[in-house]
Amino acid sequence: MFERMKEKKKEVRVVRRIVLIVALILVIIIGIAGFKTYSYVTDALEPVDADSEKVITVEVPIGSSLDSIAALLEENNVIEDARIYKYYVKFKNESEFQAGTYDLMQSMTLDEITESLKTGKVYHEPLFTINVPEGLTVEEIAENVIAKKTSYTAEEFLKQIDDPAYIEELMVKYPDLLTDEIRGDNIRHPLEGYLFPATYPMYEEEPSLTLIIEQMLNATQSNVVPYQGVLEELEKSPHWLLTFASLLEEEATAQSDRQTIASVFYNRLEDDMPLQTDPTVIYAMGKHKERLFNKDYEFEHPYSTYQNKGLPPGPIANAGGSSIQAVLDPAKTDYLYFLADKEGKNHFAKTYEEHLKNRDEYIGE
Fold first, then answer.
1. CA dihedral (350, 356, 361, 365) positive or negative
2. Which band of pLDDT confidence, cut at 50, 70 and 90, is reported for residue 59?
3. Which residues cross the membrane (predicted)?
4. Which pLDDT value is given to residue 86?
C-alpha cells in the first residue's frame, strides 16, 4: 500500500512537471507570437523605407473603396500591410479619399499618405521642379526645358520619345489615350501634343527620362479622361481632341478667344473650307518664323491647313486644359474668319469682305 502511494505521488509530480512544461511552452509561444505581431504591426506603421527617394505613381480610380485603396498601396509597395493601414485609417477616423494620380514615396509616413489621398496633394518637398509652358512643341520642350533642367540632352529626350519600342510600351500602358493615330505616316513625333503643360515636382536628383515623360502623360490622361463620354458621343478620339486643342493653343491669347476661334474652325469645317491657320504652316516648315509670306502659304505639306482641308494629322503643340475644354465647349457664332492685330488681339468676321476690312484696319500692309 505504501509503495502504491509513493508511485502515485511520483505520477502526480510527473504530471505536474509535464503541465508546467507545457504551460511554459505555451507562454513562450504566445510571447513570441505576441512579440512578432507587435513588431510586425509596429513596422507596418512606419515608412516602408525612410531613406528612399524613389517616386511611385499610384492611380486611384473614381469610386475606390478604402479596401481597394489600401490594397493598391500595398501592391505598389507604398505601405507594408493593407489590413493594418485600413485599421489605422479607421482608428484615426479618416475618410473622403480623392481619386487621382499620386506620386508617392516609400519614405512617407501613413499620415502623409493619408493626407495626400484626402487633399489630392503630395506632402513631400521636391528636390526641383520641371515647368512645361503651354504651347510648346516636343522639340522646344526638349531644348528649352529638359536640357536646361536635367542632365539629359535634347537629343536624348527626343530619341526616347521617338523610340518605337518605347512607344509600343506606352500604348499598352495608356490604351485609352495613345491610339494607332500617333503612329501615322505623317506624324513627326508620336507624343507631340501628349506632354501636358504643367509644373512637375521631381523627388530624385536624377529622375529617369521615362519617369519624366510618364508624369506628363499621366497629366494628359487626367485632363482627357473626363471628356471620354463626350468624345464617344461625338465619335471622336483623344488624338482628334488634342490636335484641335493644339490649334487653339497656338492661335488664342485668352479663354474667350479660344472658344470663339473654336467656333470659327467648326464653322469652316462644316462649310468644307480649309482652316487656314498660320501655326500649321510654321509647324510644317519645321522652323520658327515671325511672319509668313505668300510663298510660305504655298508650301506643300500634310500639316499645312492652307494646302489641306480638315485638321492636320496630329497636334502641332502641347495644349493646356483651357484649350482642351474650348474644343468641346465652343462659342456659338457665325464667324468664318479671324486675324490678330500687331498687339495680338484677335478680330473676327462673318464674311470675307469684313475680314479684308479688319486686315486693312488692324494690320495694314
1. positive
2. confident
3. 14-35
4. 86
